[in-house]
Amino acid sequence: MQTVTGGSQCTANFVFTDGTGAVYLGQSAHCAGTGGATETDGCIAGSLPLGTRVEIDGASQPGTLVYSSWLAMQAAKEKDANACAYNDFALVRLDPSDIGRTNPSVPVFGGPVGLDTDGTSVGEQVVTYGNSSLRFGLESTSPKRGVSLGDAFGGWTHTVYTVTPGIPGDSGSGVLDAAGRAIGTLSTVAVLPYPASNGVSDLARQIAYARGHGVPGLTLVPGTEAFAGVL
Predict the structure, then answer these.
(1) SS3 letters for the chain?
(2) CB 128, CB 110: distance < 8 Å
(3) Rounded CA separation 108/193 (Å)
(4) What's residue 131's pLDDT?
(5) Looking at residue 43, what is its pLDDT?
(6) pLDDT at 47 over 70
(7) 167-182, pLDDT tens digit by residue?
């Protein structure tokens, strides 16, 4: 589903809980960014503050930005350059009135069935669903299938090619492997060295970072619909 944060439209990825009864949608941290499209170093990039209202397509009430990996890394004075570049994850807390209406399944494909924790190999098949407003409601271009070019930068990111490629507004989309496990979240649209590819930030690493920086019980919620496969 679409989210809008400070006028910036993105695509939510997965549903999460933390053991306290709160329910969250995941989106990219850069969706709340206050700089330009090239401002991608989360350790120095500007961001709207926690507490910012987030409009959620189909929800009766706005959600609330309660975690940003960018703000967390800045508060921690993070020095890992790979984390600074690719830890691009945020949590939007749902209003209690919308929790019962939220389906954690990925549209079209179903799942996730769990969390991928071993990265991707070259040629591994992947699927994702983007909901950019730039598609002008053309839903046939939202589900995408493709392959990974493998892991990079210490496993923090995975380069993928899909048909069609992710475009602005698809940012944050969840990516699944061939078994239906959640690999990561779409973060970048690449020009070089792989034109029309997308950078996918590793979800297992992003969850681990969030657990250590303010959301200790964070857990991915499995989809209620069976994973349909990559074909």
Answers:
(1) CEEEECCEEEECCCEEECCCCCEEEEECHHHHECCCCCCCCCCCCCECCCCCEEEECCCCCCEEEEEEHHHHHHHHCCCCHHHHHHCCCEEEECCHHHHCCCCCCCCCCCCCCEECCCCCCCCCEEEEECCCHHHCCCHHHCEEEEEEEEEECCCCEEEEEEECCCCCCCCCCEEEECCCEEEEEEEEECCCCCCCCEEEEEHHHHHHHHHHCCCCCCEECCCCCCCCCCC
(2) no
(3) 31
(4) 77
(5) 98
(6) yes
(7) 889 999 999 999 999 9
Does residue 84 contact residue 53 with C-beta atoms inside 8 Å? no
Range of the domain at 120: 114-202
- The answer on 130 and 79 residing in a single domain is no
Domain count, the chain: 2
CA distance 51 to 224: 29
My answer on whether 124 and 162 are in the same domain is yes
Residue 121 shares a structural domain with residue 38: no
In degrees and rounded to multiples of 5, residue 133 shows phi and psi of -65, -20
Identify the residue whose tokens are 């996730």.
Answer: 112
Mean pLDDT of all residues belonging to the chain:
94
Residue that finishes a domain, picked among 80, 104, 128: 104
Query: What is the structure's pLDDT at 31?
Result: 96
44 and 133 belong to one structural domain = no
pLDDT 10s digits, 127-150: 999 978 776 567 777 899 999 999
Residue 36 pLDDT grade (very low, low, confident, very high; cuts 50, 70, 90): confident
Q: How far apart are CA 124 and CA 145, in angstroms?
A: 11
The pLDDT score that the predictor gives to residue 100 is: 95
